[in-house]
Amino acid sequence: MSAGRILVVDDDPQIRRAMRASLTARGYEVEDARSGEEALGKLRQESFDLVLLDMNMPGMGGEETCRLIRTGSEIAIIMLTVSSAEKDKVAALDAGADDYVTKPFSTPELLARIRATLRRSPQALQKGLQKLKLGTVEVDFDSRQTTTRGRTVRLTPKEFELLSYLVARPNRTITHRELLQGVWGPDYGDELEYLRVFINRLRKKIESDPAKPRFLLTDAWAGYRFHPPA
Amino acid sequence: MAKFRRLALQVSAALGVVAALTFVFFDLIRINATTAGFFYLVAILMIATSWGLFESTVASVVAMLCFNYFFFPPVGTFTVADPQNWIALFAFLATALTGSQLSARLKRQKQQAEDRRLEMERLYALSRALLLVDSTLPAAKQIANQIAQAFDFSAVAIYDRSTGTVDRAGPDNLADIDLKLREAVLQSTVILDKSGDLTITPIRLGGEPIGSLAISSAALSDAALQSILNLVAIGMERARAQAAVNRAEVSRQSEALKSTLLDAVAHEFKSPLTSIKAVTTDLLDQTPGLPPQQKELIAIADQGVDRLERLVSEAIQLARIEGGKFGLNKGVHFPSSLIAAAIRQMKPLTEGREIRLQAPDDLPLVLVDAELIEMVIRQLLDNALKYAPAAPITITAQAKQDAIIISVADQGPGIAEHDQARIFDKFYRSSASGAQVKGTGMGLAIAREILRAHDCDIWVQSEPGAGAEFSFSLPLAPPERLS
């Protein structure tokens, strides 16, 4: 049985070759695409579990491709960036990626990220929580979507996990490190920008006024806290 | 001289008019004294209006004498028989003089009004011309030309204090004026040159002299001169502001081009490195049964890739920094994360070395360009590893007032005092480092440039024989950046 279907999108043929060899050896099924346009075409025709998406590609860049994938899909996306500059990391996450890896990366590191991204944590479901009403927003933990006045927005897997993790521990400040390790995995802990971007994304989906959050609160210097509705 | 000749001519003409009237009324048409007096007055008023006060005054006196000599009895003498005629004679003189004065004043005012109008017109033309100064050519030269053209001055010179240049315009060549122009600026006073009606005035903007203006002109009112100076000051300042904007734009564009180029270079170098790295790491990870000799060979290739990757990154960073200005990608970071990342990036070099990390968990966050600060830490760590082989290295981070201080201390041979001051200079290598340690002498200079860009400092404390401690400060993240 396949460990998962992965679409590798990179304009460099050598990188595609290396990825295909490494990932196939680990039991993944691999397809590749040379450009964002080709990737979008393949995603329409076949189903994948994860996309490895190069950020710097000629034509439609990685960011734009990521944004377009996100308009219709919650598939796991890992971006491959050249620069480890903060602005590029944030740009990747803002475009909707679940994680990113800086080139050149080591294969074990990439594999760890793929496993972490594909991992599903069952935290919220263990407590039997299925629906949660936050003001005018209803979160459905079964279908992983939120509904606001009849409008439905789906949560990406990582957004969903982050929300589940916080909801399962109400009224407690969760430190950045705990949150990163709990949701992304034990290899994480220093990636503050992940939290900033993902909490912002979540607030846009579940808070009626994302600038003045009522449920997902920031505890400056320390971490984040879920404040359940009365 | 021309003035005197004209005056003499007009006085003669005035006297001629008086003589002609006397001749007509005494010899040709005999009329009584009263009528003759009126005719004299009319002639004098006309002389005053058309020529001036001096001419009409001379004409008045001569007319009074003629009036007396030819028309008052006894005719043909200057004696006056009837005392009443004395009164008439003086009344005539007083009327002639007063009338002359009034007419001349009227004429002068009219002339002045005409002059002001002309000056206004010329100032207006000048101000319009100055708005159209071509920003790609030197401004002072154009301004001087416009003034000379608008006012028909025979010579104009402008001294620009900021550039030290003198620009001239007009048919006359003000050759030996440079010193006087500078003097006018330095002493901030007006200098009048008697030979050739030359006025040298400082050009002030907001009280500050920014240059001086020399004008060769006979008649120019103070108000007009002041207006010209204001226009010139505004024109020069406008040109300077425009030049500054142009320079900034050129610099911004070349900065953007450089950044794009460097991004492309980074991408081109890193793509092949990425595929090699993926392969070497995969081989090392995936095949546990690999013979030790093959594993060693792959490890060499893997470390070579790491080293090459670091070289490429730092060469690109260096290229960015060396341009003088470079954009910082500032973000909020944990000091300990920066240190941990730097140690992680140094991996193969730190193997088998003892590195102690002393950083409290509750350190405040810093606002820095993480990539660059990690580069500074790597540089210091690299130095410690190279210069103090086999001794433990201690990295500490501590909060001090409004900054975080990060220090990298080794227990190596230390740095001689005379080297400590110069160790951050570009290309400087301490006398002790000599041949044993490889390096470019760039590392600490780059580190200092990076910290300067953060408005921070780097320094070293060392006692020869007792190790060296390099420390630098980092700015705390302001509270509004923490949410």
Describe this structure in words.
The complex is a heterodimer of chains A (about 230) and B (about 475). Chain A has about 230 residues and is an alpha/beta fold. Chain A is about 40% helix and about 25% strand. Chain A contains nine helices and twelve strands. Chain A has helices at about 15-25, 35-45, 60-70, 85-95, 105-120, 125, 155-165, 175-185, 190-205, and strands at about 5-10, 30-35, 50-55, 75-80, 100, 130-135, 135-140, 145-150, 150-155, 175, 215-220, 225. The relative contact order of chain A is 0.10. Chain B is rod-shaped, with a radius of gyration of 45 Å. The relative contact order of chain B is 0.05.
Number of helices of chain A: 9
Shape of chain B: rod-shaped
Instruction: Give a short account of the largest sheet of chain A.
Output: 5 strands, parallel
Distance between the termini of chain B: 86 Å
Task: Return Rg of chain A in Å.
Answer: 18 Å
The order of strands across the largest sheet of chain A is: 2-1-3-4-5
**Residue runs with pLDDT of under 50 for 5 or more positions of chain A:** 121-126
- Count of distinct strands of chain A: 12
Quaternary state of this entry equals heterodimer
Reading the helices and strands of chain B in chain order gives HHHHHEEHEEEHHEHHEEHEEHHEE
Poorly predicted tracts of residues of chain B? none
Sheet with the most strands, sense and barrel status of chain B: 5 strands, antiparallel
Query: Roughly how much helix do the residues of chain A carry, as a percent range?
Result: 40-55%
Beta percentage of chain A is 15-25%
Structural class of chain A: alpha/beta
Count of DSSP E strands of chain B?
12
